[in-house]
Amino acid sequence: MTVILSGQEIAQRIEQKFPGAVEDAAPEGALVKAEAMVDVCTYLRDDPDLAFRYLVSLTAVDRLDHFEVVYHLQSIRSNRLAVLKVKTYDRENPEVFSVASVWWGANLQEREAYDLMGIRFSGHPDLRRVFLWEGFAGHPLRKDWLNMPGGLMPGLERFPGEPGEKLEGRG
Amino acid sequence: MKTEPFVVNMGPQHPSTHGVFRMRLTLDGERIIDADMVMGYLHRSMEKLAEERTYTQNIPFTDRADYVSAMTGNLAYVLAVEKLCGVEPPERAQWLRVIMSELQRFASHCMAVGTFANECGVWFTPLMHMFREREKILDLFEMACGARLTTNYMRIGGVSRDVPPEFMPTAYKLVKELPKRMDEYEALLLESEIIVARSRGVGVLLPERAIACSVSGPMLRASGVAWDIRKADPYAAYAKVDFDIAVGTNGDVYDRFLVRMAEMRQSTHILEQALDMMPAGPVHARIPTATVQPGGAPSAPLAIRPPVGEAYGHIESPRGELGFYIVSDGGPAPFRFHIRSPSFINLTPLPELVRGVTVPDAVVILGSIDIVLGEVDR
């Protein structure tokens, strides 16, 4: 059974090596400072006990006031899963450091997050859109895409008595 | 002789790409010196659409992501939502999930191996033989849920309905027959001179590189890494069945083919056990009333509203680790719905695998990755 390391546990391990690198630790994952991310990831990959050599998933979440990049790391040797997060508050030009130099598996996933969420991964060798074409207006997975701040949820509207919820204040 | 490098577009309409996938190959004579992947022709922005629909309405999207393996797509999504809501499906539903997943794995590998044989030049006969078995499995799906491809069978907390009485005898009959068919396929394909000549030693992916590239599924196991979510993090009733992880040694195209063939054998083995061990009982759990609340107005229909939080559910789909990362804000629709798609991520090492080989080898290498474009582009 895969053991899911809580955010506090993984944060404690990171703090031992890089004091001050963790901003916050919730049960869902450890929030790492953006500038320390590449060093932390290299450590988590190379440490013989942790050995998070497999990057399972990399994705981004638009939390309305900030973006969150979420990393799921897997250790195949000890069968453990850990979740790291990085925040960026800049809506115009959100930027975090690329981890493609740590795990090459991040290559396409970072391109996807750039394409759909508009997050720039500095240090990525080839940051281009992957699904949409160059010149496509905006990044569709953002909550305010197409000037729909607090947009309606059209799917829910099809139900009688379901007025369509506002997105404002959610998240 | 010195020649100018030139660019060839393989795809988007090319039989070897299994859909609309394009490789821009830079060639020096017949050797590939560089490859660029162009995808997105089938992009439907499922992740955005899912944010506008209720949790139950999102299940059909997961059919259409990996349309060759709809059952496993359903399962991965409902597992993630169940984690979020803290729902445990009843025993019979767990076994039905195992049976459907393994039938689906067999059908999907039939497609993968059959088309792979095609690409090697074993022209269509194996594919047609394998489609015979796939057809019978699809008939079973039709019996269980009325659909053959886009099954929409799993539900949050169980499955949509119990199987009809005629399902079990038909399934037993099929599962008795499948090992014999596997004997036939193995005799026909394993030592096939064409397949061996085209695939052995081609497209070698070393285990360290496979892990670094986040490759999963048969492709990872062919490189010699015994990593299978069914064993590593058992879901549904997989902890109670006995089976082996098929592992390759060389990490070449031939090993990926061997691993798929061995997994089909293991699937029949799991199916035999699952059909015997499945108990009677309900197939759907009660969702806690705290999480089921009216969507908006008091007269609105009930919708599942998981508590605020996030969950990552993952399974071993025929193509690799299929994961769903769901963020809930307590509303009736997911706040964020992310598909960790194995087909997409397994393409990561493709440019380095095809660099230095000839164009016909690139066709075989792409075939061995076994991508489904619905899942690559989503």
Q: What form of chain A results from the Cα inertia axes?
A: globular
Q: Flag low-confidence runs of chain B.
A: none
- Strand fraction of chain B equals 15-25%
Number of DSSP strands of chain B? 12
Helix content of chain A: 10-25%
Question: What distance lies between the first and last C-alpha atoms of chain A, to the nearest angstrom?
Answer: 31 Å
Task: Using the CA coordinates, give the radius of gyration of chain B.
Answer: 21 Å
Structural class by helix and strand composition of chain B: alpha+beta
Distance between the termini of chain B: 44 Å
Alpha-beta classification of chain A: alpha/beta
Placed side by side, the strands forming the largest sheet of chain B appear as 1-4-5
Question: Biggest interface, which chains?
Answer: A-B, 47 and 52 residues
Overall tally of structural domains of chain B: 1
Q: Which whole number gives the mean pLDDT of chain A?
A: 80
Strand content of chain A: 25-35%
CATH architecture of chain B: Orthogonal Bundle
SSE arrangement of chain B, N to C: EEEEEHHHHHEEHHHHHHEEEEEHHHH
Q: What Rg of chain A is obtained from the alpha carbons, in whole angstroms? A: 18 Å
**What count of structural domains of chain A?**
2
CATH fold node name of chain B: Cytochrome-c3 Hydrogenase, chain B
Summarize the structure.
The complex is a heterodimer of chains A (171) and B (378). With 171 residues, chain A is α/β, with parallel strands linked by helices.
What layout of secondary structure does this protein have?
The complex is a heterodimer of chains A (171) and B (378).
Chain A: E1 3-4, H1 7-17, E2 22-26, E3 29-32, H2 37-46, E4 54-62, E5 67-75, E6 80-88, E7 95-97, H3 106-117, E8 120-122, H4 154-157
Parallel strand pairs in A: 1-6, 3-6, 7-8
Antiparallel strand pairs in A: 2-3, 4-5, 5-6
Chain B: E1 6-10, E2 13-14, E3 19-20, E4 22-28, E5 31-38, H1 46-50, H2 59-65, H3 70-85, H4 91-120, H5 125-145, E6 154-155, E7 158-159, H6 167-189, H7 193-199, H8 207-212, H9 218-222, H10 229-232, H11 253-277, E8 292-294, E9 302-304, E10 309-317, E11 320-328, E12 336-340, H12 342-346, H13 350-354, H14 359-369, H15 373-377
Antiparallel strand pairs in B: 1-4, 2-3, 4-5, 6-7, 8-9, 10-11, 11-12
